Amino acid sequence: MTLIAYLRWGMVAVLACAVGTYARDKKDTPKAASTQVVDTGSFGVFVRGQRVVTETFSVQQENGISTVRSRLQESGNPTAAVQKSELQMTGSGELVRYEWGDGSGSLVVTPKDEFLLEKITTASSPKPAEQPFLMPNTSEILDNNFFVHREVLAWRYLQTNCHPESGNLKCQQGAVEFGVLVPQDRTSLRVRMELVGRERVTIRGAERDLLRLNLKGEAFSWALWVDDKDQFKLMRVVIADDNTEVVRD
Question: Which of these, 104, 64, 107, lies nearest to 88 by C-alpha position?
């Protein structure tokens, strides 16, 4: 399939399912709509070459709601606490609900009026603490340690800022800024994403031609590679400052 065909199918259909670029009229939605799997798999997180965490994830759409689930398990330690998250968005990319928990605490983020409201529950406090954020409900969730959230951000960037031209992917010049919420840190920040171009990288001993994106904030710089020949799936992440590499299994 040609690049343009991939973009037409992937960026209109697959990306739409993941980050919401279209909204279905409820009148046109079948009563028993089937679940569409957008992506599923796992990432291995390696620090100085040693696997430390496995993230198992899925991205699905049903009845116009996209659901991103993830589970983090520490490698070599089956008794370690498991982190779980679930992110739900509407067909137009608006946050419905985000949940995170690790067995000893949990949090929930939902829209409220013009705010995003985070409720945090800990083992020592039966009453949830509340923290509002003056952010639109289309803000990205980029929680700690969940690399599938970075995949969703990459999809949104590609869909809203790039287009096929003469068989190549053309994006607007310069980095694009996004407002994001990091629920576990109880903080919001601005991040920037930019398409670098096509690069040949080695993944599990095999060379791959992938598209590289740079994701930067005030205190971090990440390199991400996505496969434009396989629905723009996130394949690799390098965090050079932390000697960390993330690779799709």
Answer: 64
> Domain locations in the chain?
3-248
Spell out the residues 6+ positions from residue 58 whose beta carbon is closer than 8 angstroms to its own: 37, 39, 40, 67, 68, 69
Q: pTM of the prediction? A: 0.86
Q: Report the candidate in 238, 202, 233 with the shortest Cα–Cα distance to residue 246.
A: 238
Beta bridge partners of 244: 47, 239
Q: Which pair of structure tokens corresponds to residue 12?
A: 């209109």
Q: Quickly list DSSP for 64-122.
A: TEEEEEEEEEETT-TTSPPEEEEEEE-TTS-EEEEEEE-SSEEEEEEEETTEEEEEEEE
Q: What is the pLDDT of residues 180-189, one digit of tens each?
A: 999 999 999 9
- Tell me which of 150 and 127 has the higher pLDDT: 150
Distance CA 240, CA 36 (A): 35
